Structure formats: C-alpha cells, structure tokens
Amino acid sequence: MPETKIQKSVFRILMAFVMVWGMEVYNHFLTEEITARSFRMPISELLLLMGIVILLQQLIAGKIARKIAFHIVNQEKRETFIFTVAMQIVTVLLMCPMMSFVAVLMFKSAALGISREEVPAYIAAKVEA
Fold first, then answer.
1. Cβ-based neighbour number of residue 129 at 10 Å
2. CA-to-CA distance for 91 and 72, rounded, in angstroms?
3. Taking Cα atoms as reference points, which of 20, 99, 100 lies closest to residue 56?
4. CB neighbours of 10 closer than 8 A, spacing ≥ 6?
5. Are 46 and 17 in contact (CB under 8 A)?
6. For each successive 10 residues of the chain (129 residues), what is the average pLDDT?
7. pLDDT for res 94
8. What is the pTM of this model?
9. Terminal CA-to-CA distance of the chain, rounded, Å?
10. C or N terminus of the chain, fewer CB within 10 Å?
11. Is 65 helix (H, G, I), strand (E, B) or coil?
12. How far, in Å, CA of 108 to CA of 85, rounded?
C-alpha cells in the first residue's frame, strides 16, 4: 500500500482510471457487441468521471469506510491485511451506488427532466437540501 503523499496520489489516480474505464467497458459490453471500439472512451468523459470518483472517495466513502472497517476488525489484534481488505470491501460497497447515481445524472438526465448543462446545479441543490 502507498505510504507517502505522492504514492497515495498516484495510486488514487490509477485506481480511479481503472475503475472508470473498466466500468465503462463493462457497460458497453452489456449494451453492444464487443469490438476494438468498445475499449475507447472520450478523454474528457474519462477525466470528468475520474475527478468525481476521487472527490467522492476522498470526501465521503474513504472516511465512512475507515470508520466501518475499524468496527469490523478486532481492535486488539488489528491485523493490517484484514483491515485493508475490510476497507476495500466497504469502499466498493459505498462507491458503487454513488457512482451509479452520478452516471444516471450524467447519461440519463433527460429521464429526470433536466438537461446535461443543468446537472451540476441539480446535484448542488440535492446536496444542500
């Protein structure tokens, strides 16, 4: 696991890239046939989603995952490997619904009756409420 701030930043960026790209390819496979084009993704969309992943993980999922993992793992023995696995599992369980919500807002916003340009304001209004 990363130890320094630079290592943590690089790890965070790599994990966000793999998560966003992997889920986009997976979703593409579910809806269309597999071709070489299936592995391409617009860079602007990739960077935007990576930024959202990093932001949500830093501000929400990471903090909650740490608290839950501390409750799951025996405090007296506190095995590093078990704690790390517990943190990763809880992070995935938190991030999947949050990113699904973001994807609905970004790609299916017409079903909500809002345009893509209005999505940031819509999210801000929901967060403040």
1. 5
2. 13
3. 99
4. 2
5. yes
6. 83 87 79 72 80 90 90 78 87 89 75 70 72
7. 92
8. 0.69
9. 37
10. C
11. helix
12. 33
